[in-house]
Amino acid sequence: MNRAAAAIFLALLCSACPKRLEFGPEGRIEDAQTLYQHVRERQAKVVTLEGDAKLHVDSPQGSGTLSTYLSITRPALIHLETYDFFNRPVASLVSDGERFGVYQARENTYLQGPASAENVSRFLPVVLPSEELVAVMLGQVPLLPPESMTLELDEKEQVYVLKLQRGPATQTLRVDPKHLRVVKSEVRGVPGYDLAFEDFQQRGDQFFPDKVHLIATTAGTKLDLKYTDIRLNGRPDLTLYEMGAPEGAKVVDVDARGQEVRSEGTVSQPPPAPGS
């Protein structure tokens, strides 16, 4: 066998070999509670995020991709702005965890009221409390409070498989064994959603995903968030979380269910969602 053929053979042989499983400085973790604690600690390290992203929505109400500016601060501060292909404003959402405001540019309408999951979902077609939406956008998984848990090492997928159990609900977490970050979460037994995180990058001292995928199967909805230019753990501009209607906009007060509250105290059906 000549040298060129030998080199090709060795290259093919090496490409067929499985990648060596890498662990962090903790070494291989075999106790479920220990890994669970590490996951919580890793997730707690990212507190704020500010920058630009592309948001793709696939839902029964419609599909499309929007440019997005976002400023997120734990536990529940949200400022989101979306723009269409021509960089025209579509909608914006501001919430401090207690109150919310959504501005619909096309209708020149400003909705305000309690920051319930139903109201926050007027901006995105998934029903999530503010705290969960913040966590997901910070690359974190809202964790099921476990009554019991099990841990396995999937050497083929090269991930820890941590299963959390509470009553009929099971949450399966796939965890990167080196950085101890969740790369996938699946919830079964109760209504919920699945999460996947991809394209992790080292940003300062944080190992952070550039892509976030949320799949709500029962709602037939999928959200894909791709970060393009972001900053982590910077000092937040708290003025971004101040709420108020743009000058000239029609103001609509809604209750926690998203129904319009009229001045005489009666309620009507909720106004249309942005872009509907």
Entry summary:
It contains four helices and 16 strands. The chain is mostly beta strands and 276 residues long.
Question: How much helix is in the residues?
Answer: 10-25%
Gross morphology: globular
Low confidence ranges: 12-16, 265-269
What topology, given as strand order, has the largest sheet? 7-8-9-10-11-12-13-1-2-3-4-5-6-14
- Average of per-residue pLDDT values: 90
| The CATH homology group name of the domain at 47-142 and 198-268 | Lipoprotein localisation LolA/LolB/LppX
What is the H-and-E element order?
Answer: HHEEEEEEHHEEEEEEEEEE
What's the helix and strand layout?
Blueprint: H1 3-16, H2 32-43, E1 48-59, E2 62-73, E3 77-83, E4 89-95, E5 99-104, E6 109-114, H3 117-120, H4 130-137, E7 148-154, E8 159-166, E9 169-175, E10 182-188, E11 194-203, E12 206-216, E13 221-232, E14 250-253, E15 260-261, E16 267-268
Parallel strand pairs: 6-14
Antiparallel strand pairs: 1-2, 1-13, 2-3, 3-4, 4-5, 5-6, 7-8, 8-9, 9-10, 10-11, 11-12, 12-13, 15-16
How is this structure best described in words?
- Strand 3 (77-83) and strand 4 form a beta hairpin.
- The longest helix is centred in the N-terminal third of the chain and has 14 residues, at 3-16.
- 14% of the residues lie in helices and 43% in strands.
- The model is unreliable at 12-16 and 265-269 (pLDDT under 50).
- The protein has 4 helices and 16 strands.
- The protein is globular and about 70 Å long.
- It starts with a helix and ends in an 8-residue tail after the last strand.
- The chain has a domain at 47-142 and 198-268: Lipoprotein localisation LolA/LolB/LppX (outer membrane lipoprotein receptor (LolB), chain A), CATH 2.50.20.10.
- The strands form 2 sheets. Strands 7-8-9-10-11-12-13-1-2-3-4-5-6-14 form a 14-stranded mixed β-sheet, with helices on one face. A two-stranded antiparallel ribbon has the order 15-16.
- The chain has 276 residues and is mainly β.
